[in-house]
Amino acid sequence: MLYSSTRGQAPARSLRELLSRGTAEDGGLYVPEAWPALTADELATLSARPYGEIASDVLTLFGGAEWQEGQFGAGISKALAGFERNDGPPLAQLDDQLWSMELFHGPTFAFKDYALAPLAEAIDRELSLSQKRATVLCATSGDTGAATASAFAERARANAVILFPEGRVSDVQRRQMTCLGATNVLAISVRGDFDDCQSIVKKLYQSEAASKYSYTAVNSINLARILLQTAYYIYASAKVHNACSKPANFVVPSGNFGNIFAGYIAKQMGAPIGKLIVTSNENDVLPRLFETGAMSQSETLPTISPSMDIQVSSNFERMLWILKGRNGKKTQELQQQLSEQGRYELLPAELASLNETFGAMKCEKADALNTMRRIYEQFDKVICPHSATGYFAADQLKADLDGPIVVAETAHAAKFPTAVEEAIGIAPETPAKLAELFSKEETFVTVDATVEAVQNAIDENFATS
Ligand SMILES: *Cc1c(COP(=O)(O)O)cnc(C)c1O
User: Fold this and answer.
1) Which residue has the higher pLDDT, 27 or 361?
2) In angstroms, rounded to a whole number, what is the distance separating the alpha carbons of residues 84 and 434?
3) What's the CA-to-centroid distance between 267 and ligand 1, angstroms?
4) Which of 295, 300, 288 is nearest to 196 (CA)?
5) Helix (H, G, I), strand (E, B) or coil at 91
6) How do residues 157-216 score in pLDDT, each as one tens digit?
7) Which of 1, 59, 120, 219 has the smallest C-beta neighbourhood within 10 Å, fewest atoms?
8) At a CB cut-off of 8 Å and minimum separation 6, what does 82 contact?
9) CA atoms within 13 Å, Cβ hemisphere of 308
């Protein structure tokens, strides 16, 4: 199977080639020519299999013979089998309709691990097969950076450069990126917001230094990462279907539209999925889009759920391309309008089609805090402020949704102790691995939010290696 760019002007490539690529040359994102379908047999037997194998098989469906010949599957299974909870993300039924899917049982306690740990294995495999080195670039609102640093620390063939917005990640998140003591990981605190970091990374891919350093993407613009997340939607919807014979609706705290897009792919492949609900904090660019049809960016506000403090939802470009009938030229025009005028509008029929599959809801601070308290009192469950936006939406929408509702819990509460304490009056229990970060020394550099300043920092650290 081949992958083309959403903007239609770059050469088609295989999944293996995408491992070491960011955006396409035309600035677009790679998308598959078709969705592979799961057979009824696969769906019926799937949820009883080890989770690492499910993820490995999903990638093989997309990667084809070249992927199998390169033996990428074993590394993917191995990375996921190394998690403390290696039997897949825990699913629990909380009441008649409500389920939780805890996606925070990997090495850095957020859902990003389910993709980044196996992705690092696959990139490593690709680099050793091709006898190359690479520099992994990552813009983070907190959790992707932590997962990337952990997944790439001390790998021989790759350096990792992590850009995070100064003062806008939690102390735990920052320390996960700055206390590793790994010489191949460079953490950069950028004087700007997440969208600045993301924009700098996109420009670095297109820069002169890109070929010298072999810049590689691990943000959710990397399609392999999204496909690795597709695995848990397939797994969870199959399990829930076994339990109640109905398609599962998923509620997903969102920022870059990456995680929820992975759910969309699972649905297209035939997994028993009903609606996909996007939730946001005060940075409500997606709920506004789903209500009005207008994608319009405003200033990014700092909130108690920093990993969702995003106004430029990069992955929505993939959905836009689908809504535009897979037309690269039309997608390119709207993306250009977005970057020049900060705005575009969907046609009424496109908006209607979007809302057949998706729903969206914004959850402000007071509602998030109340929800954290309610979930603690009702289910004795301590949740993070991102997951709170999901439980809030599940409660608001339960009358309108047919069948089970699965809330994706995107991070461990202990990553955001201040918000948890404000909500429930007690601090979350902190896993030893997070607690010990506070006795370690931090290493990072701080630079202005420009491509030049970031490139200089990279030159200073990695030019000779
Ligand atoms: C990254 C992240 C999100 C947003 O996910 P997207 O894939 O960008 O939509 C939500 N919650 C947490 C805890 C995250 O780390």
Assistant:
1) 361
2) 14
3) 20
4) 300
5) strand
6) 999 999 999 999 999 999 999 999 999 999 999 999 999 999 999 899 889 999 999 999
7) 1
8) 107, 117
9) 34
Q: Is the pLDDT of residue 337 over 70?
A: yes
Pocket perturbation via mutation, ligand 1, pick of 114, 177, 259, 317 by most ligand atoms within 8 A of CB: 259
d(CA 356, CA 401): 12
What distance in angstroms lies between residue 142's CA and the mean position of ligand 1's atoms? Answer: 9
Strand locations in 156-206 (E): 158-165, 185-191
Q: Are 258 and 220 in contact (CB under 8 A)?
A: yes
pLDDT digits (tens, 9 = 90+) for 108-147: 999 999 999 999 999 999 999 999 999 999 999 889 999 9
Start-to-end CA distance of the chain, whole Å, equals: 35
Q: What are phi and psi of 254, to 5 degrees?
A: -125, 155
pTM for the model stands at: 0.96
Alpha carbon nearest to ligand 1 atom 15, residue:
143
Question: Which residues form ligand 1's pocket by a CB distance below 6 Å?
Answer: 110, 112, 143, 220, 253-259, 307-308, 386, 410-411
Nearest atom (ligand 1) to Cα of 229: 7
Contact (CB, 8 A) for 278 and 286: yes
Contact in structure between 170 and 415 (CB atoms under 8 Å): yes
Angle, CA of 245, 249 and 254, to the nearest 5°: 155
Structure token pair of residue 239:
């399990």
Give the integer Cα–Cα distance in Å for 26 and 4.
11
Rounded to an integer, the average pLDDT of 396-420 is: 97
CA atoms within 13 A on the CB side of 190: 30
56 Cα–ligand 1 center, Å: 22
- Residue 112 known to be catalytic: yes
Q: How far is the CA of 348 from the centre of ligand 1 (A)?
A: 28
CA atoms of 267 and 237, how far apart (whole Å): 9
- 110 secondary structure, DSSP code: B
Best substitution site from 102, 168, 256, 278 to test ligand 1's pocket, by max atoms within 8 Å of Cβ?
256
Dihedral (C-alpha) 3, 9, 10, 11: value to the nearest 10 degrees? 70
